[in-house]
Write a structure and sequence with these properties.
It is a single chain. By secondary structure, the protein is an alpha/beta fold. It folds into 2 domains: 202 residues, Rossmann fold (3-Layer(aba) Sandwich), CATH 3.40.50; 157 residues, Glycogen Phosphorylase B (Rossmann fold, 3-Layer(aba) Sandwich), CATH 3.40.50.2000. It contains 15 helices and 13 strands. The chain has a 7-stranded parallel β-sheet with strand order 3-2-1-4-5-6-7. β8, α8 and β9 form a beta-alpha-beta unit. α11 packs across α14.
């Protein structure tokens, strides 16, 4: 059985790219098709893959201006010839699921979320500093992308959602059914430490919509030590907000990241994420998580058992949650917290992906299109 993996773009190393690594480990002979590939931004493991790029790879200034080529990605994805493959596994939060396949090829999409900038446009751009011209014209192009996204979903035979949260979005926007298989977390890399520091931790890409500004405001008021790991376009704006109790550490390698996980008092997770691997990694170290009660955090953090969930995405609500945590912090059991993380282990993901593909390839292709029960 010939399998191909298709991913939106390989220009940074995040949760989706970690999934691609695992998919390639499961299917080591599968080539990886993607629109653009910037090897300098990815670990060495990707250099061992057979990565095949589109015409976009020849475009200038991809490292800094890849977003400006927004309307080229659909064409780039559709340019791939995948007619030789029995199974195409698209790894997608945007364009990869729009690939063309022939009738005999089974297309399974591992969906991180429906195209966020198309379907959640208002929240996605609310804190971006776009100029007047872009702000006026961008909605027109986003509308075109939304239509393309809907039209090309017919090319997907089966959707796998990364969480129940994403499953609901696939139902809401696409009116299609899906099965949930949680992303893989290599829990064997993490362990519990007896030594705990006095600092709280944020691990995030520093984008405007991530809510890190609310965390800084809360810690400016509380005065507790805060360390922020990660980088991104919003960093300079965030650095202007902090007081002396907050420290920016930038991007760290995995070893240093794990050390900070293991020794922090708790992780602060303010965003509304589709899943969120960082809270699971933190819990694999036996460390509690203080998270906004939205999205994937509702599936990975157990309030009062493995962390604290707060309802409103406001500085006041977060401050109350941290104050509550300070009162009950000694009640948390590191072993119970780690056991919760083990439910998302890489071995479980591997087993479920293999079983899913095995089941669907054994079924008649004509029966593969699964519609939502609410259709």
């Amino acid at each position: 059985m010939k399998i191909a993996i298709v991913h939106d773009y390989l220009n940074q190393y995040g949760g989706a790219e970690r999934v691609v690594e695992v998919l390639h480990d499961i299917f080591p002979k599968a080539p990886v098709y993607t629109t653009i590939y910037l090897p300098e931004n990815l670990p060495d493991s990707f250099r061992k893959m057979d990565i095949r790029t589109s015409f976009m790879q020849r475009l200038p200034f991809l490292d800094k201006h890849f977003k400006k080529y927004l309307l080229l990605y659909p064409k780039a994805v559709e340019s791939f010839d995948l007619s030789d493959y029995d199974v195409v596994l698209s790894s997608s939060s945007a364009f990869a699921k729009g690939i063309k396949t022939i009738s005999n090829t089974l297309h399974i999409c591992y969906c991180y979320t429906p195209m966020r900038f198309a379907w959640d446009y208002e929240r996605y751009v609310e804190k971006e500093n776009f100029g007047k011209i872009i702000s006026k014209t961008l909605p027109f192009f986003i509308d075109r992308l939304r239509k393309w996204d809907l039209e090309k979903n017919i090319r997907v035979d089966y959707f796998i959602a990364i969480s129940k949260n994403v499953q609901k979005k696939i139902d809401r926007y696409y009116r299609l059914g899906s099965e949930v298989i949680y992303p893989p977390v290599n829990t064997t890399k993490f362990s519990i430490s007896c030594k705990k520091g006095d600092y709280y931790l944020v691990v995030s890409r520093l984008n405007a919509y991530k809510g890190i500004d609310l965390v800084i405001e809360a810690f400016n008021q509380l005065g507790f030590p805060l360390k922020i790991i990660g980088d991104g376009p919003h960093r300079k704006n965030l650095e202007k907000l902090v007081k002396s109790n907050t420290e920016f550490l930038g991007k760290l390698d995995d070893d240093d990241l794990i050390k900070h996980y293991r020794h922090c008092k708790a992780l602060i997770f303010p965003g509304d994420e589709d899943f969120g691997i960082v809270p699971v990694e933190t819990q694999a170290c036996g460390i509690p998580v203080i998270a906004h009660a939205m999205g994937g955090a509702l599936e990975t953090v157990i309030d009062g058992v493995t962390g604290i969930l707060y309802k409103e995405m406001t500085q006041e609500s977060l401050t109350e949650a941290i104050t509550r945590f300070e009162k009950i912090k000694n009640n948390f059991d590191s072993k119970i917290i780690r056991e919760n993380a083990l439910k998302f282990d890489r071995a479980i993901f591997t087993e479920k992906i293999k079983a899913f593909i095995g089941e669907k390839t054994a079924s008649p292709k004509a029966c593969s299109r699964v519609f939502s029960v609410n259709n």
